[in-house]
Recover the amino acids of this structure.
C-alpha cells in the first residue's frame, strides 16, 4: 500500500479517537461556581472579545482575575479572541460579558470541541506527519507505525479533547520548531518555537535545548564570520516575534510586568494537588511546604532545576547535532517538571499518571480505553517492527493493576488521599529514573550504529 | 539496518485488528443511539420479567417483539447479565430507561457478541487462496479481515445506531465458511439458526436451498457441469431436512405448543393479506430467474448467488431498510479479495451503500465520526484492493470514479449547504431524496453488473469448485 494512504489512515484513526473522546465529559462540567478549564477557556473568549487589550491581564470591575484570570501569554489571548468572533456569529450568548458565566449547552460543547479539532488539524497533525516522514529512521512501515503511535498518544487526546485544553497548539508549534531545526531552517524553527513559547509559557521547558543547540551551531560555524551573522539573524527573528506578539502590551511598562506576574505566579505555593514531582513526593516525608520559607523554596527549586539541566545543556552546546538536541529536550523537560516551582500534573502529559485528575473529570472510560489501546499498540508494533524484546511488557500488567486498584478499592479512612499520593510517588520514581537514564545516554553516547552518518 | 520481523507466519495481526476495533467501539459507547436501543432494552425487560407465553403478546411498549424466538432467548440470556449492571432496565414499564449503566451494558453486549463475528471472519480467511511470501498488508486474508472487522456499515449501525448485526452476520459468515470447508451439515444448521434469529435472512434462503440441493444432494455432476440425476442422495436430503426442521422445532416449538403460532407469525410478518402478495411477488419474480440459472452453477457461484439474492431483495422489496444492504456487502467482500471484477463491483457497491447509511446518523456530534470512518474504510478498500490487483489495470473506470467522487459534493450540499438555505423549511426531505436517488443509481449498477457476471460465470466450465 502506498505511503500516502497509510498515513491518511493513521490520521483518520487519530481524528476518530479524538472526536470520540470529545463526546465525554469535560473539566468542571456541571460544577458551579468555579467549573473548570473548559469554563476558563470560554471565559477568556468572553474577556478578550468584550474588553480592550489593556484590561485583559488586569483586575478591573469588568475583569475579575480570581475567576479564571488569563494566565497564559498573549498568543493564547489572541486565539481566544478569534474563537470568540466565531462564537459570536453562532450564538452571542456564549460570550456575553458577565451573563455567560458558567454557560453550558450541548451546542456550545460541540463548538468548543470543534475549535480544538480545528487547531489540531491545522498545526499539530501536519507537524507529526512531517516529523515521522523526514526524521524517523527505518522503513516506511516503521514511520507509519511511529506516526500512528504518536497520533494515538492518550495523554494529549485526553487532556485536549477530554479535560479541555489547547496543548496541541503549543506542542504543535514546538514540533514545527524542531522540524525547522532538523531541516536546517534555523530561522523558521526559531520563529515557530518563539510562537510556541508565546502561546504557553510551559514551553520554557524546551527553551534551553533550543538555545544551546542554535548557539552551539553558530559557535561551530565560527563566531567571527558566518556563525556571528547566523546568530544575529536568529536573535533578530526571536526578538521581532516577541515584539509582534507583545506589541499591544508595550505601550505602558506596567503592562508587560503584569502579564509576567500572571504567567509566573510565584505567589502560589511550591505545588498544588498531587503532582508527580520531587517537591510533592518529598512533602510526604518532610513537610517542606510549611518548613521552608517561600524564598528558600524558590531558591531551592531554581538551583536544583539548573543543576539537573546544566550537564545536558552543556553537552548539547559542545556537540550541536540532532540526536543530542532530541535527548536534551527530554532531559530539560523532565528536569523542569521534577524540580521547578508550581508544576501542575498536566505538565507531564503522561496519561498513566494523570489518572486521579481524569477520574475527577468523569473521563475514566476514555482513559482506560485509550491507554490500553496505546500501550497494546505500541508494544505490539515495537515487538514486530524492531525485533527487540524490551522488558517493557511488564509495564502493561503493572499499569492495569494500579489502575484497577485505584478505581475499585476504597482507601483506608485515615488516609483518604492514599492512592493519589501513591500514584504520584511511583510516577515520581519513574521520572527520576528516566532523567538519570536519559542524561547518561546523552552524556556518554553509547554505540549508535545507524546514527553515525546523520548530519545536521 | 533494522529488519522488519516477518509477520506472515504468525496470526497475531488478526488479534491486533480485532482488539483495535474493539477499543474503537468502546470509545463510541457514549455516542448517539437510536430508538433501537430502547427496542432491545424492552426485549431484555420482557423476556426477563414475563413468562414465555407472554412474550409475543406483550405490548406495553410500542416496540413489540418482532424477531424469531431464538433471538428472544438470546435477549433472555443477556438479561441475566444485565441484572449486575442495573436492575431497573429489566422493568417493563420503565420505558426509555437509559441510565449510564444500561448504556454501558447494552453497548458492551454488542461489542462482546461481535466475538462470533471475529471467529467467523477467521474461518472465512481459511477459505481464501493464499499467496506465500507476500508482505502482510498485501495478503488477501489481511485485506478481507480489515474489510469485514472494520466495516463502516457495521460500525455505525451496530455501535452507534445500535443493533446486533455483527453477531448475526457472524453466524451467516460462519455458515458460508462451513460450506467452503465442505462441512455442509454444520453450514445448514448455522443457517437455520440464523433464520430463527432474524427472519430477514429469508431473502437469501433460496440461494441456500438451491445450492444445497444442487451441490450437496446431487453428489456428482457431469463433465460440463449439468446435473447427474442419478446421483441424487436421499440420505443427504433427509439429514438436511432433519437439521433444518429440528432447529425450527426447538425455536418455534414452545409457541406451537401454546397455540401461539399465528400471533408469532403476525409479529414477524406484519402485513395485511393484500400487501403480502405485492411484497413477495417482485421478489419471487427476481429470484425465479436466478433459480433458473442457479441449477447449472458451480460452487463458486453460491456466494455470487447469495449476494444477488440479497441485493435483489434489497432493490425490489418494499419494506426494506437501508441497513439490509449489509447483507450484500459482507459476502461480497469475500468475492472482492479473490477476483478483479468483483473487487471493482465491491468498491462501487460498498462506497455507495455506506454513503446511503449517512442519514441514519443525523446528529451534529456524530457528523465528524461518520465522515472520518467512511474515509477510513473507503481509502483502505481502494488502496488495498488496488495493490492486490495491481497487475491488470485500474479497478474502476473513469465513469465509476466520477460517480463516486460525486458523493463529495452531494454530501457538502445535503449536510452543509442546504440546511442554510430557505428551502430547508419548505422541503426538508429534499436532501434525503437526493441521497436515495443518487445511491440507487450506484446500487442498481452494481446489481446489474453482478447479475451479468453470474450469467457469464455459468458459461465458463473451466472454473473449479471451491472445494
Amino acid at each position: 500500500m502506498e505511503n500516502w494512504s497509510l498515513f491518511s489512515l493513521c490520521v483518520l484513526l487519530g481524528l476518530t479517537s479524538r472526536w470520540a473522546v470529545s463526546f465525554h465529559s469535560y473539566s468542571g462540567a456541571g460544577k458551579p461556581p468555579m467549573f473548570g478549564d473548559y469554563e476558563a477557556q470560554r471565559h477568556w473568549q468572553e474577556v478578550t472579545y468584550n474588553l480592550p487589550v489593556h484590561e485583559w491581564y488586569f483586575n478591573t470591575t469588568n475583569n475579575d482575575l480570581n475567576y479564571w484570570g488569563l494566565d497564559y501569554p498573549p498568543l493564547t489571548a489572541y486565539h481566544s479572541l478569534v474563537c470568540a468572533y466565531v462564537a459570536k456569529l453562532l450564538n452571542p450568548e456564549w460570550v456575553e460579558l458577565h451573563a455567560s458565566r458558567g454557560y453550558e449547552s450541548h451546542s456550545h460543547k460541540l463548538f468548543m470541541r470543534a475549535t480544538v479539532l480545528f487547531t489540531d488539524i491545522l498545526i499539530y497533525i501536519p507537524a507529526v506527519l512531517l516529523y515521522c516522514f523526514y526524521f524517523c529512521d527505518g522503513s516506511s512501515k516503521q514511520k507509519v507505525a511511529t506516526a500512528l503511535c504518536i497520533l494515538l498518544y492518550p495523554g494529549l487526546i485526553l487532556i485536549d479533547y477530554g479535560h479541555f485544553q489547547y496543548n496541541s497548539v503549543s506542542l504543535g508549534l514546538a514540533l514545527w520548531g524542531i522540524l525547522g531545526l532538523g531541516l536546517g531552517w534555523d530561522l523558521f524553527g526559531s520563529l515557530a518555537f518563539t510562537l510556541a513559547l508565546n502561546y504557553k509559557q510551559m514551553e520554557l521547558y524546551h527553551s534551553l535545548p533550543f538555545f544551546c543547540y542554535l548557539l552551539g551551531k553558530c559557535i561551530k560555524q565560527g563566531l567571527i564570520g558566518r556563525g556571528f551573522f547566523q546568530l544575529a539573524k536568529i536573535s533578530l527573528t526571536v526578538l521581532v516575534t516577541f515584539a509582534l506578539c507583545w506589541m499591544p502590551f508595550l505601550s505602558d511598562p506596567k503592562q508587560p510586568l503584569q502579564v509576567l506576574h500572571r504567567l509566573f505566579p510565584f505567589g502560589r505555593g511550591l505545588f498544588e494537588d498531587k503532582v508527580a514531582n520531587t517537591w510533592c513526593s518529598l512533602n510526604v516525608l518532610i513537610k517542606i511546604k510549611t518548613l521552608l520559607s517561600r524564598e528558600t523554596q524558590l531558591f531551592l527549586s531554581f538551583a536544583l532545576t539548573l543543576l539537573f539541566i546544566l550537564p545536558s545543556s552543556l553537552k548539547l552546546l559542545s556537540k550541536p547535532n540532532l540526536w543530542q538536541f532530541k535527548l536534551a529536550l527530554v532531559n530539560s523537560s523532565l528536569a523542569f517538571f521534577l524540580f521547578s516551582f508550581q508544576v501542575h500534573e498536566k505538565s507531564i502529559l503522561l496519561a498513566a499518571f494523570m489518572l486521579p485528575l481524569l477520574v475527577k473529570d468523569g473521563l475514566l472510560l476514555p482513559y482506560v480505553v485509550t491507554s490500553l489501546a496505546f500501550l497494546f499498540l505500541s508494544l505490539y508494533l515495537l515487538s514486530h517492527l524492531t525485533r527487540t524484546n524490551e522488558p517493557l511488557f511488564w509495564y502493561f500488567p503493572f499499569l492495569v493493576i494500579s489502575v484497577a486498584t485505584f478505581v475499585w478499592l476504597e482507601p483506608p479512612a485515615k488516609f483518604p488521599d492514599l492512592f493519589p499520593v501513591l500514584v504520584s510517588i511511583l510516577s515520581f520514581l519513574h521520572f527520576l529514573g528516566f532523567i538519570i537514564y536519559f542524561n547518561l545516554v546523552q552524556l556518554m553516547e553509547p554505540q549508535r550504529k545507524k546514527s553515525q552518518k546523520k548530519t545536521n | 539496518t533494522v529488519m522488519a520481523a516477518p509477520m506472515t507466519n504468525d496470526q497475531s495481526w488478526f488479534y491486533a485488528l480485532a482488539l483495535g476495533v474493539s477499543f474503537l467501539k468502546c470509545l463510541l459507547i457514549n455516542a448517539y443511539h437510536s430508538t433501537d436501543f430502547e427496542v432491545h432494552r424492552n426485549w431484555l425487560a420482557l423476556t426477563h420479567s414475563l413468562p414465555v407465553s407472554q412474550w409475543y403478546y406483550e405490548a406495553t411498549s410500542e416496540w413489540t417483539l418482532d424477531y424469531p424466538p431464538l433471538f428472544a432467548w438470546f435477549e433472555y440470556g443477556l438479561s441475566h447479565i444485565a441484572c449486575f449492571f442495573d436492575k431497573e432496565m429489566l422493568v417493563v414499564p420503565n420505558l426509555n430507561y437509559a441510565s449510564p449503566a444500561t448504556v454501558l451494558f447494552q453497548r458492551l453486549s454488542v461489542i462482546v457478541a461481535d466475538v462470533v463475528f471475529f471467529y467467523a471472519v477467521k474461518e472465512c480467511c481459511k477459505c481464501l487462496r493464499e499467496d506465500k511470501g507476500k508482505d502482510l498488508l498485501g495478503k488477501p486474508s489481511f485485506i478481507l479481515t480489515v474489510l469485514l472487522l472494520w466495516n463502516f456499515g457495521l460500525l455505525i449501525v451496530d455501535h452507534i445506531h445500535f443493533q446486533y448485526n455483527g453477531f448475526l452476520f457472524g453466524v451467516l459468515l460462519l455458515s458460508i465458511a462451513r460450506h467452503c470447508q465442505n462441512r455442509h451439515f454444520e453450514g445448514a444448521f448455522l443457517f437455520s439458526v440464523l433464520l430463527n434469529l432474524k427472519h430477514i435472512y429469508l431473502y437469501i434462503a433460496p440461494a441456500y436451498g438451491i445450492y444445497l440441493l444442487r451441490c450437496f444432494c446431487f453428489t456428482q455432476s457431469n463433465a460440463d457441469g449439468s446435473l447427474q440425476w442419478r446421483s441424487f442422495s436421499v440420505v443427504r436430503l433427509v439429514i438436511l431436512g432433519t437439521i433444518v426442521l429440528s432447529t425450527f422445532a426447538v425455536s418455534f416449538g414452545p409457541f406451537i405448543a401454546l397455540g401461539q403460532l399465528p400471533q408469532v407469525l403476525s409479529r414477524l410478518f406484519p402485513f395485511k393479506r393484500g400487501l403480502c402478495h405485492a411484497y413477495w411477488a417482485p421478489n419471487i419474480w427476481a429470484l425465479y430467474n436466478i433459480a433458473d440459472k442457479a441449477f447449472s452453477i458451480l460452487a463458486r457461484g453460491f456466494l455470487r448467488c447469495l449476494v444477488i439474492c440479497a441485493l435483489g431483495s434489497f432493490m425490489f422489496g418494499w419494506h426494506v431498510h437501508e441497513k439490509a444492504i449489509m447483507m450484500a456487502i459482507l459476502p461480497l467482500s469475500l468475492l472482492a479479495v479473490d477476483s478483479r471484477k468483483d473487487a471493482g463491483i465491491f468498491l462501487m457497491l460498498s462506497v455507495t451503500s455506506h454513503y446511503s447509511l449517512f442519514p441514519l446518523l443525523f446528529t451534529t456530534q456524530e457528523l465528524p465520526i461518520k465522515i472520518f470512518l467512511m474515509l477510513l474504510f473507503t481509502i483502505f478498500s481502494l488502496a488495498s484492493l488496488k495493490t492486490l490487483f495491481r497487475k491488470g489495470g485500474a479497478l474502476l473506470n473513469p465513469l465509476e470514479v466520477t460517480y463516486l467522487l460525486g458523493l463529495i459534493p452531494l454530501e457538502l450540499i445535503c449536510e452543509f449547504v442546504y440546511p442554510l438555505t430557505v428551502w430547508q423549511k419548505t422541503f426538508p426531505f429534499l436532501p434525503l431524496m437526493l441521497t436515495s436517488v443518487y445511491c440507487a443509481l450506484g446500487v442498481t449498477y452494481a446489481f446489474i453488473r453482478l447479475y451479468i457476471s453470474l450469467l457469464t460465470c455459468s458459461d465458463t466450465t473451466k472454473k473449479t469448485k471451491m472445494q
